[in-house]
């Protein structure tokens, strides 16, 4: 457009544009009252109460959000040409679930974080729908006399300008928010009584430039301390009366923006573009036209009421690219530039946080951008409604920027709102469980100890009793025997004495008789007495014999008792050795208990350390993302720690600290813990670490890969299989590790895991790992000969699309390497895939509805077809018809043309096509 169609002025004077087109209605303008009614219906219910940041969350129930809260929509840009080719083998880094307003951010092969937004706009969302959900409620508020802001935040190239500033001159369906907002405003106002004026500005390095008047390049921002109104008295203000002049103004602004940026030697992605639309409406209160907002007919009587004027301001901000400016050298930025370029975005983040947290101080004054937005942005002057669109791209290569954009959006939605479903390690409950186990062990040990002591006491007492009883018995028996002896002896003596005295008497009597008679009888008498004496002697002999027998029996008894006593002594001795043995057992038991307690204590501290570090990691991540939310670090940290500006590095820092504090060795040692829970937690920690590329080398060097493979070999636990296979899959992303995995028999282990697993997630991990190995040119033959391809094909039995996608990816990777090898002449003969029977599965699944599977299969077919050695088989199995179909219908242009090329360059295919008269041109 030429400036002659529009006269520009500063301040409040009217421009001729207004006069020229005054009264003319632009095309499609609806009668004011009617359209007003239509618009009102969809107005958010409680917009007037805006500003109070309520604690409740906007539900999924339509448009009526929480007044005052920033409403946040996320919009995904479709893949563009370069991404279609470069990222063909990779899944998008996000998955959108618009029906539940959720976004899943893929962290690695199997792990995702889930976030909730007010609106989730997929790559298919039309500009009209985006306008309706993001901007329309704000525009309606502006027409009702409130201020409103619509902002787009995101990495350069993700569609901010497309969303906000697209003019749609070629295709009306492409019109962006600015154009559609003006259409709605124009349709609503009555140009006789109302006015619309527009300023268009650029904010670059904390300087406000007028995009409608390039000479005007340092505009002051003025705030009315009483009303809080923000104005730019120095900025060109253009009255708008029709859509056409507005479009011309936008084009002119864009042209000036381009020129200004060329002059400053910068890109427009480094500056913020700000469109300000002031709507001033007079509400008629006379002649029966009561104010629409009162709507009562009795108001007509108050005919002398002064006219009511409603002023609303709409600010649309196309923010600078949110990517960090960290390569100041390569992009020609000085540090000063980088600092002030980041400043406004960072201040915006801080204000959003402060508003979201209902903080008493909102640092609006920190930057020009936030000063400009102050009265349109809730908070103290609470008459505003704000919508934020965060734009993201699908490419996994920009995962870092995408994550930081998502975190900014989440912050803007309000901190408590953050819905983040995340698998976390519940260290607390594990530690509690271990504590319980420890307590149980201690109790059990105490019980056993008590039982031992009791038993020993019992045995000791029993032995003592036995001994003392035996002693008593022996003593009694001895005493008895002694008494009996004595008695017998005494009796014998008595008898002997009696006999003796009897004999003496007899002898004396005999002698007397002999002496009186003096006679011849002496000899016969003497003979008689000798005979009785010998009788006596034999009797005595007998008695003595009896005596000797008795003595012998007594001696025998004594011997028997002696024997009994030694037996008892033996029993006592063995009782003692039993006691000793029990004592020793007790000592061992105590020692073992101490060792166990020590181990548990170590485990305990390790777990505490782990959970402490995990907490810290989480906090760091949150802190880090909030720093990212602020858009940039402050100037100090930029000066001191330039290396932190690499976002990848910064994200990895807390994980690096996990290594330092807990020690990788310790974590790896827990993989062999006895407690299955500890093992599971440890393998999860290792898997999480392995998901970070920066940790992979360290993990492998510390023997982590070997331990993971060992787990696959030795454990039966499915969870461990799943997690360990996932970790191996991640480690298998790098070529050196792929070779290590193969060297350590990894493919055999993965194959047997695949054969035994039922859980689709386990199979997905295993298939993912094998698929990675399939992409290594050097490992092709070994992989196949050790059953890798067979294992991959075996997993299709599960039928889960995620597993099939990994299988298809593996096949595509393998086919790609093969086709490379055949181009280089290092491979001859049929494809190993075909030899292992993959072709029929490929053909069967080539038409699947799951796009991730189909894309890989299509690529695999194209790769296989590039090698003439496969052509015959491909004709025989019908793969040629899939190629024909791909060359005609595939939605991806690059694959379509690849299929076409392969078909037309193979003599076998050409012959077959000619034979069947199929034309593929
Ligand atoms: P930004 O302003 O964030 O740097 P652009 O709006 O310039 O990004 O978008 C970059 C490119 O992507 C442009 O070519 C644009 O047309 C295209 N693009 C962005 N979003 C979409 C979309 N939703 N649909 C189609 N093309 C898009
Ligand atoms: Mg842009």
From TrEMBL:
Q: Which PROSITE patterns does the entry mention? A: ARM_REPEAT, KINESIN_MOTOR_1, KINESIN_MOTOR_2
One of the record's GO cellular component terms: mitotic spindle
**Which GO molecular function annotation, any one, does this entry have?**
ATP binding
What SUPFAM superfamilies does the annotation carry? ARM repeat (SSF48371), P-loop containing nucleoside triphosphate hydrolases (SSF52540)
For this entry, list what GO says about its biological process: microtubule-based movement; mitotic spindle assembly; spindle elongation
Q: Where is the composition biased (Polar residues)?
A: 1-10, 628-638
Residues annotated for ATP binding in this entry: 154-161
Q: Respond yes or no to whether keyword Coiled coil is given for this record.
A: yes
Q: Which InterPro entries match?
A: ARM-like, ARM-type_fold, Armadillo, KIF11-like, Kinesin_motor_CS, Kinesin_motor_dom, Kinesin_motor_dom_sf, P-loop_NTPase
Write out the annotated subcellular location.
Cytoplasm, Cytoskeleton
Q: Which residues form a coiled coil?
A: 431-495, 530-606
Q: How does it assemble?
A: Interacts (via C-terminus) with NEK5.
The protein's name: Kinesin-like protein
């Amino acid at each position: 457009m030429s400036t002659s169609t529009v006269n520009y002025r500063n301040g409040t004077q009217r421009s001729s544009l207004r006069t020229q087109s005054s009264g003319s209605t632009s095309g499609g303008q609806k009668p004011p009252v009617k359209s007003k009614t239509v618009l009102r219906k969809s107005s958010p219910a409680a917009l007037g109460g805006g500003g109070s940041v309520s604690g409740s969350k906007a539900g999924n129930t339509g448009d009526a959000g929480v007044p005052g809260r920033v409403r946040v929509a996320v919009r995904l840009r479709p893949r563009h040409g370069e991404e279609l080719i470069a990222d063909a083998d990779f899944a998008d880094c996000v998955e959108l679930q618009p029906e539940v307003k959720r976004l899943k951010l893929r962290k690695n092969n199997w792990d995702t974080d889930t976030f909730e937004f007010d609106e989730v706009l997929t790559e298919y969302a039309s500009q009209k729908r985006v306008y309706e959900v993001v901007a329309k409620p704000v525009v309606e508020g502006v027409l009702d006399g409130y201020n409103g802001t619509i902002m787009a935040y995101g990495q350069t190239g993700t569609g901010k300008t497309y969303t906000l500033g697209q003019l749609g001159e070629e295709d009306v369906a492409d019109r962006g928010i600015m154009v559609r907002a003006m259409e709605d405003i124009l349709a609503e106002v009555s140009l006789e009584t109302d006015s619309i004026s527009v300023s268009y500005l650029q904010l670059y390095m904390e300087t406000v430039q007028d995009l409608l008047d390039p000479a005007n390049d340092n505009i002051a921002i003025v705030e009315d301390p009483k009303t809080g109104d923000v104005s730019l008295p120095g900025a060109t203000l253009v009255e708008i009366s029709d859509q056409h002049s507005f479009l011309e103004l936008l084009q002119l602004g864009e042209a000036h923006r381009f020129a200004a940026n060329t002059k400053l030697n910068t890109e427009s992605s480094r500056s913020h573009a700000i469109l300000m639309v002031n709507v001033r409406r007079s509400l008629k209160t006379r002649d029966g036209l009561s104010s629409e907002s009162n709507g009562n007919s009795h108001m007509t009587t108050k005919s002398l009421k002064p006219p009511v004027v409603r002023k609303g301001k709409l600010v649309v901000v196309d923010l600078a690219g949110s990517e960090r400016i960290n390569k100041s050298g390569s992009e020609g930025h000085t540090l000063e530039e980088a600092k002030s370029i980041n400043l406004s975005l960072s201040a915006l983040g801080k204000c959003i946080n402060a508003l979201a947290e209902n903080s008493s101080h909102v640092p609006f004054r920190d930057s020009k951008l936030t000063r400009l937005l102050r009265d349109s942005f809730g908070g103290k002057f609470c008459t505003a409604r704000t919508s934020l669109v965060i734009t993201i791209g699908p490419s996994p290569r920009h995962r870092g920027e995408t994550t930081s954009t998502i975190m900014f959006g989440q912050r803007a939605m309000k901190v408590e709102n953050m819905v983040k479903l995340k698998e976390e390690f519940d260290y607390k409950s594990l530690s509690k469980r271990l504590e319980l186990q420890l307590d149980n062990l201690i109790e059990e040990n105490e019980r056993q100890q008590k039982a031992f002591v009791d038993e020993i006491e019992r045995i000791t007492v029993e032995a003592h009793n036995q001994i003392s009883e035996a002693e008593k018995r022996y003593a009694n028996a001895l005493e008895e025997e002694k008494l009996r002896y004595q008695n017998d002896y005494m009796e014998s003596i008595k008898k002997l004495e009696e006999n003796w005295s009897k004999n003496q008497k007899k002898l004396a009597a005999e002698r007397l008789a002999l002496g009186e008679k003096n006679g011849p009888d002496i000899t016969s008498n003497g003979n008689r007495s000798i005979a009785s004496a010998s009788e006596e002697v034999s009797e005595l002999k007998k008695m003595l014999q009896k005596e000797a027998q008795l003595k012998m029996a007594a001696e025998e008894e004594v011997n028997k008792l002696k024997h009994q006593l030694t037996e008892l002594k033996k029993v006592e001795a063995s009782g003692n050795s039993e006691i000793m043995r029990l004592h020793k057992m007790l000592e061992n038991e105590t020692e073992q208990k101490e060792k166990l307690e020590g181990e548990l204590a170590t485990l305990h501290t390790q777990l505490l350390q782990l959970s402490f570090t995990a907490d810290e990691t989480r906090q760091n991540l949150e802190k880090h993302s909030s720093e990212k939310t602020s858009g940039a670090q402050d100037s100090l940290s930029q000066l001191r720690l330039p290396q932190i500006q690499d976002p990848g590095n910064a994200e990895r820092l807390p994980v690096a600290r996990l290594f330092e504090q807990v020690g990788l060795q310790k974590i790896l040692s827990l993989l062999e813990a006895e407690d299955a829970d500890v093992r599971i937690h440890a393998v999860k920690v290792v898997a999480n670490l392995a998901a970070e590329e920066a940790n992979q080398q360290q993990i492998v060097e510390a023997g982590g890969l070997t331990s993971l493979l060992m787990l696959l070999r030795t454990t039966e636990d499915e969870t461990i299989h799943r997690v360990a296979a996932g970790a191996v899959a991640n480690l298998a992303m790098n070529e050196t590790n792929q070779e290590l995995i193969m060297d350590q028999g990894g493919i055999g282990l993965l194959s047997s895991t695949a054969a035994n697993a039922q859980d689709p997630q386990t199979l997905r991990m295993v298939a993912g790992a094998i698929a990675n190995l399939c992409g290594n040119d050097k490992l092709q033959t070994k992989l196949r000969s050790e059953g890798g391809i067979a294992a991959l094909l075996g997993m299709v039995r599960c039928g889960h699309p995620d597993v099939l996608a990994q299988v298809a990816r593996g096949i595509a990777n393998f086919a790609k390497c093969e086709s490379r090898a055949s181009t280089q002449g290092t491979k001859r003969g049929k494809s190993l895939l075909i030899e292992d029977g993959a072709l029929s599965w490929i053909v069967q699944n080539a038409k699947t509805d799951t796009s991730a599977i189909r894309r890989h299969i299509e690529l695999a077919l194209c790769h296989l077809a590039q090698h003439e050695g496969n052509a015959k088989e491909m004709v025989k199995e019908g793969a040629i018809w899939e190629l024909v179909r791909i060359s005609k219908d595939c939605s991806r242009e690059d694959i379509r043309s690849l299929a076409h090329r392969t078909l037309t360059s193979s003599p076998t295919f050409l012959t077959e096509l000619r034979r069947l008269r199929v034309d593929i041109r």
